[in-house]
Amino acid sequence: MRLNTVKYLTTLVFTVAALQVNTVLAQMDHGPEHQDMGQMQGGSAPADARDPQAYSDGYTLTEGPYAQPGPRQLKLADEHAFWSVLGDRLEYHEDSESTVYDIQAWYGTTYNRFVIKAEGDIADGTLEESSTELLWGHALNAYFDTQLGVRLDQYDEGKYRQWLAIGMQGLAPYWFELDVTAYVGDDGRTALSAEAEYELLLTQRLILQPRAELNLYGKDDLDNRLGSGLSDLAVGLRLRYEFSRQFAPYIGVEWTGTYGDTADYRRAAGEDTSGTQFVAGLRFWF
Amino acid sequence: MYGALIIEPRAGERHRADQDYVVQLSDWTDEDPMHTFSKLKVQSDVYNFNQPTFFDFTADVSKMGLQAALEKRQMWNQMRMNPTDLADLSAATLTFLMNGTTPAGNWSGLFQRGDRVRLRFINAASNSFYDIRIPGLKLTVIQADGQDVEPVTVDEFRFGPGETYDVMVEPRDDAYTIFAQSMERSGYARGTLTVRQGLTAPVPDPDPVEWLTMADMMGAMSHGTGHEGMNHSGMDQGSMSMGAMDHSTMDHSQMHGGMAMDHSMHGMQRASDNPLAKPSSTIRHARTEYAASVDMRVDMPRTNLDDPGIGLRNLSQRGLRPQGHRVLTLADLKSIDGVLDDRRPPARELELHLTGNMERYSWSFDGLEFGKSTPVSLRHNERVRIILQNDTMMTHPMHLHGMWSELETDQGELRVRRHTIPVQPAQRISYLTTPHDLGRWAWHCHLLFHMDAGMFREVVVS
C-alpha cells in the first residue's frame, strides 16, 4: 500500500515536471516574449554596457577627498566568510541494514568557497565504502558554481582510489538542484557522477524530494567491482517533515540498479543487481 | 535602542492637533541577527512559509485548468524566482512591534471625542515594510520624511524602514485599531486609539499573500497581466491616472513609462532645449550586471509612480477592503511650495541599478557589492539627477544621507522631497539632489540585511 502511494506520487511528480518542460519548449519556440525573458538572466555584457565605475572620478573607498587614512574600516557581509553544514541524507537502509551519510559543508564568501562533500555506507560498525571530496568552488554564474579539487574513495574490501575532480553544482531552471562532476584518477581512470534533486512542497513543511544519482566509469575497476560505462543508478523519493527548516526527519524509498560489468560482478558474487528498499533518516543543516 | 527625534519648525506646526503621538514601528528577533543573516546565506527562503505548494497547484488546476495553472508558474519556475518572495524575514523569526509593544501588549493612544489627532508614523524596523490602516478612519497625510506635503486623504499606506509619514485623523468612535501588517503578510503590529485606556476595537486578519505579478518581474513589458493588475483604487483618483490601457491611445503627457514610449520620448527630448529636462528612458545595464551577483535584469521598467505595490492593488475589487478604499502612492505626494527650493535643471544624470541574487543572498548596486564598489562622486552644490532602476523583485527603500532626494516624475516634474524613496520591483524612478555638505556619505537600501549584504555605496561630495 505504502509502496503504491510512493509510486503514484513519483509518477505524479515526473508527469508534472514533464508537462512543464513541454510547455516551456513550446513557448520557447514560438513566444517572442519568452525569448525576451531569456535575456533577463545571464548572458554576457554588450560592448556598450555601462561602466560601473564611471561615476567615481577615479576615487576609491580608501583614496580621494575625505577618505579616512589607513586601511578601510567598514567591511560589510559581502566581505565576510560564512559556513554551513548540510546533512542531506543521514539515513538507515532497511534491506541492507546499513547507514548512509551524505553531508556537504562549505566555508567562504558568496562567490568563492571551500567545499567538502562526504558520502559513505556504514554496516555492522564498519565503514564499508566512502567517498570524500575537497573542492574549491567558484561562482560560474548567478546559479552555478564550478568546483575543482580531489576525491578520495575508500573501500573496506577493495583498493583506495584518488581522483582529481572538476564539476559544476547549482540550481537549474525549474528548481532542479544539479551536481555533475568529472574525475580523472591514476592509471588513466576516469569517472563521471551526476546527481539531481527536486523539492515538491506538499505543504509549507511537508516536502517530497525525488532524487536521482548515477555513476559512470571509463574503465573496469576489478578491485572495487566496478565496470566501465554506466555502473549504477539510484532513484529515490523521500518525504520529509520540516519541524524547522533546519531539522527534518524523513521516510523514503530508494531503487538502485547496477549495469554492465558492475552488474556482472555482483551476479558472480551471488548478489542482487538491483533492488528497492525503504529508508528512514534525517535531513538537517546548520 | 531606538527613539524618535522630532524637530518642531521654528514657526510652529502647519497643522493644529489636539493630540500628537509617535507611532514607531519596529521588528524584533530573539535570534542573534547575524545568525539570522547567515541562515539567509545558506537558504534564502528559510523564513518564507507562504511558498507555492503542490496543493496550491492542484487547486489552480481545478479552478483555471491545467494549461493556465502551468502557465501561471512557468516563468517563475524557469527563472528560479519565487512569486511569494516578498520579504527576507517573517514572523517565523520576527515579532512586530508598535512603540516597542507587541500586538498582545496593545499600545494605546488616548483622545477625547472631537480631537484632531496627529500620528507620526516612523518605520524603525530593521527589515520590514508595514502597511498601515486604521479601519473606520481616513488618514490625511500631511508630512513625508519630516517634510510637509499637500494634504492627501487615504485609507492606507505602505512604508519601509527609514520612511516616516505624519497623518491627521479625526476619530469619532470610542476605539480604533491601528493595524500595521507586514508586507509579506506573516504578521502584524497593532495598537489602539481610544477614549479610555483598556478599550479595544476589532483586529483584522492579515491579508492573504498575493503573488508577485509579471509587472513586478518584467516592468512595462507585460502589458496584459501587469497593467491589468495595477489598475487599482489608487489609480482611479488624482491626476496621474493612466487612463486607457491601450497603448495606441496613450497620452504621453501622462505618467507612464516603458520602452513602448521610447521613440516618442527621444523625440520629445530632442525638441526640448535641455536634453536633461526629463530623465533618460534609455535602459543602460552596467557591465557588472551580467555577473554572478545578479539574477535578473529588467529591460522594460515601469516608470509610473501611482502603483501602491504588491498586495495593495485592487483591494476593493478583491473584496479585501470597502469600495473606494484608497492606498497612498508616491504619485500622491507633492511637497508644499518652498520645499523644493532649487529650481535649476540637472546638469548631469547618473543611472544606477538596484541588483541582487536571491539564491546567493547578495544585494548590490550595478552588481557590485560595497566591497567591490567605488564611491559615487558628486560636486559641491551641483544639481544632479539620479536614476534608480530596480532590477530585482523586491522593493528597496533607498536612503541617501547628507542631502535630499527630490523625486520627480518620468516627465521631469519635481514632486516631493524625501530622504528615503521606496523603489518597487522592475520600477525605474529618478530624483534630483543638490549636495550642500562636503564629505563622504552613505547611500543604501534601508532594509538592514540588504545593506549589509552589499547594497551600499559611498557618495563623495567634493
Task: Give an overview of the whole structure.
The complex is a heterodimer of chains A (286) and B (462). By secondary structure, chain A is α+β, with helices and mostly antiparallel strands. Chain A is built from 3 helices and 13 strands, in the order H-H-E-E-E-E-E-E-E-E-E-E-E-E-H-E. Chain A has a 12-stranded antiparallel beta barrel. Chain B is of the alpha+beta class and 462 residues long. In chain B, 15% of the residues lie in helices and 28% in strands. Chain B is built from 8 helices and 22 strands. In chain B, a hairpin with a 5-residue loop joins strand 10 and strand 11. About 11% of the residues of chain B have low confidence. At the A-B interface, helix 1, helix 2, strand 1 and strand 9 of A face helix 1, helix 2, helix 3, strand 12 and helix 8 of B.
Short key terms for the protein model shown above:
heterodimer, A: 286 residues, alpha+beta, twelve-stranded antiparallel barrel, 3 helices, 16% helix, B: 462 residues, six-stranded mixed β-sheet, 8 helices, globular
Largest sheet properties of chain B: 6 strands, mixed
- Approximate strand percentage of chain A: over 45%
Mean pLDDT of chain A: 90
Helix content of chain A: 10-25%
Our Rg estimate of chain B from Cα atoms comes to 22 Å
What does the oligomeric state look like here? Answer: heterodimer
Distance between the termini of chain B: 33 Å
Largest sheet of chain A: 12 strands, antiparallel, barrel
Unreliable residue stretches of chain A = 1-36
What overall geometry of chain A do the principal axes of the alpha carbons give? elongated
For the largest interface in this structure, which chains are involved and how many residues does each contribute? Answer: A-B, 62 and 77 residues
Number of helices of chain A: 3
Strand content of chain B: 25-35%
Structural category of chain B is alpha+beta
Give the proportion of residues in helices of chain B: 10-25%
Overall spatial form of chain B: globular
Which structural class do the helices and strands of chain A define?
alpha+beta
